[in-house]
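Running log. JK asked me to keep both predictions on one page so they can be read side by side. First protein, sequence followed by its tokens:
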Amino acid sequence: MDGDGDPESVGQPEEASPEEQPEEDQPEEEDRPEEEEAAAYLDELPEPLLLRVLAELPAAQLVQACRLVCLRWKELVDGAPLWLLKCQQEGLVAEGGAEDERDHWQQFYFLSKRRRNLLRNPCGEEDLEGWCDVEHGGDGWRVEELPGDCGAEFTHDDSIKKFFVSSFEWCRKAQVIDLRAEGYWEELLDTTQPAIVAKDWYSGRSDAGCLYELTVKLLSEHEDVLAEFNSGQVVVTQDADEGGWTEISHTFTDYGPGVRFVRFEHAGQDSVYWKGWFGARMTNSSVWVEP
């Protein structure tokens, strides 16, 4: 063997004479001192100034490239001040936020950038698209526009225009969220165990009572149940807040390693057994992984 992989055993090519060297290679030779000069200049910058320079770069470039440049840059990229600065610059925390308030600013940054509702079609804008294990009890699920008959406007968010409504027998539907496919890596889920928050909004009618139920499960890779929340059957009377909307929420913390999926399921029916769609109404369902 010729010492493949050993830096000291790799032969250096003979330097070409000026006559043999192509003209296009010469500018690269001339640029090298400038590149080395620029690198040396950055290396001599005071730490606060260098942090501000690094904070202007994309996060992926910082982690995948900049931390490999030298030991000093690695320590800066792995440290809290750089990521606190990026969080402040991008409005994720208020300017002047105390560094002592959070140990892992890098994790906070990446979780904040990923923060979004992981449920698809939470308000019925796409009918039942994205929902699985759909059970059409009675006359089945239907999507209606707010406020609906004998209902109330959704005053908590003006962008919400529609809702799901159940019938005179239990109607159920679910979604299963693959956390790894959504960008949450295994080490983060197993060690940091960020809070997983499930929310739903439900309502009845002013002329009919109904029942509502929410079940949320954290599942392993093999879909074993590692943690579970169940609201039980919530009774909504016909005069409850004149058909107004009620939020239900549960936060999973310290759930242990192994969580890979979240299963969100809600259900409803009316309590008067009237044909049609007099059952529980649902909208603006959500699952969030919080920083």
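And the second, directly underneath as requested:
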Amino acid sequence: MAMTGRIRSTLPLLTKVLKSDSPSSNVQRTLICPSFNKPEFSRNYATASPPKEQKVKVPLALYGVSGNYASALYIAATKVNALDKVESELLDLVEASKRTPTFSLFMKDLSVPKDTRVKAINEICAHAKFAEITKNFLVVLAENGRLRHIESIAKRFTELTMAHRGEIKAIVTTVIPLPAEEEKELKETLQEILGQGKKVKLEQKIDASILGGIVVEFGQKVFDMSIKTRARQMERFLRDPVNLGSL
């Protein structure tokens, strides 16, 4: 995608920054985020304060490092009505990291000085034309040595945005991609199961090891109709001793 391409094109710039010894400019602190007491979560990533403090409720309770950062970003992005844009930019950054080994190593390497990390992130975000709120959030991650968690943070942030939109992700595993008509029929069936107020978001997954059939996961439910599972069930049945007295 275009955004990913812009991020990947910053590799020469990233290499230059990593080799530079010049300190980064001071990062401008923004608003205080009232929901988090730890210093690393104690700022909002928006650049302008609303006239009146807007209370934002996180739709899901998330825990751990990734959950805390994702929740803080959700609150900040909601206040400036930028959920979709921030989500898109985070996912583009993750995709760029997966496709570019140098960028991926930079994100995970804690030996890179903090000033160098911050400067690189500022340059990359400027080149990729990220929103200010996304850039400020990534700067916070760079300052706190948390860039290595960006993939899990993006995943948890997506969970929050999906809950906000009333979406339920259904993972459909098959040996080959489902034809468009079958995918549509499956989505309509799942929508009927979930009822009104929820929207199904299908995610197709290809796994040759299931041998055939289909596995559908959504919410806390798993419908396993794969040939692999049926074969195992048949194998257990054949191994069970036959009770001749019941014949």
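Observation for JK regarding the second prediction: The CA atoms of residues 170 and 220 lie 10 Å apart.
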